Amino acid sequence: MESLKNWIIMVIKKIITQVLIVITRFLMYCISRVDKKGNLVLPLLFNGYERYSENFCNFKLYPKNADYFIPSNIKTVTKPGEFAIVLQGIIEIRDNFTIETVKLYKKIFPGAIIIISTWDYTDKDLLDEFKILGCEIVLSKDFKPCGFGNVNYQICTSLAGIKRAKELGALYTLKNRSDLRIYKEFAFEYLKSLLTIFPVDKDNPFQLKGRIISPAGNSGQMFMPLWLQDFYYFGYTEDMINFFDIPYDSLQVHSAQKYLKEKYGKFDGEIMCNIPVPEIYITKTFIEKYMRAEMKVINHWNLIRQYFIMVDHEALNSYWPKYKLYNLSSFYCEYDGKHNFIDPYKHISSVDFLNLYNNQYEYEDWMEGIRKKNIY
What we know:
By secondary structure, the chain is α/β, with parallel strands linked by helices. Helices cover about 40% and strands about 10% of the residues.
């Protein structure tokens, strides 16, 4: 009798939950129809939240489609074909995301070469849509091992696309996840300017023509050696080939977080450095083509000072819908809803890059142990 009662309660809870979901979705639909610019109902919701919360909050709208973009009349010195964008990985079909990204890039980066570097099992009709939009298509065959956290797949599609960019004569290349979008007009000119302002030593050991640019990283980047965030990378095309022309990882692990939690029961920075996770693997393996990669914070900082640049997502107006991290600027706001991020969670922003570059931070021995903290 008791079990029947519990079953009835469970069924009722499920029914109530589903009803609430339907009602909420209907309300969201109505709000989206009435408040298309987000300046009527959404501010009321946020103001109501602020009234009872200990936090201020903000929101930002990112157009799903490129139809309404109005280009600036400002002219740049960029030449057609000077810049290539490699959209790598599995095509994001939700909301026609990758298709609409291409349409937007055609408007905000006129003259750019857009390369779709994906897998040969991709739907032919989908590939034809990209061809109609004027994209170059580079297809790779699936293979094993995938590497830890699918890092081999990223290396494969990135390198294949960048090599095609070189064949087409692009001087600079942006490696861009196919499920991430940049909304900032003139972002290319900004990134190119950074390479000019922060040159590398001509006799550098890595044979780099310029620095490699990547965005502010995930939790713990400040004290996790050789962590460069892999959402996108930018640099001279030859440098980008050099950066991704590295050996594959030997592991066959699709989900890094799941694997580490099941094997070690935690997901801390020390373990992530030792495996290592994809972001670290790429940088570490590139470094080790030329020298031993010391997994120390002081080495990490010195390499960033000399060979890399970190930019903020806000600077490029980036949007990444994976894992429901809908607003990268919110994800990297350095506050958890009440407190500022403590040391194990710190990433490297553009502010931190400049401070490292200009030797404003004092290195101390305690920093080497920070990554042993559980950062997730």
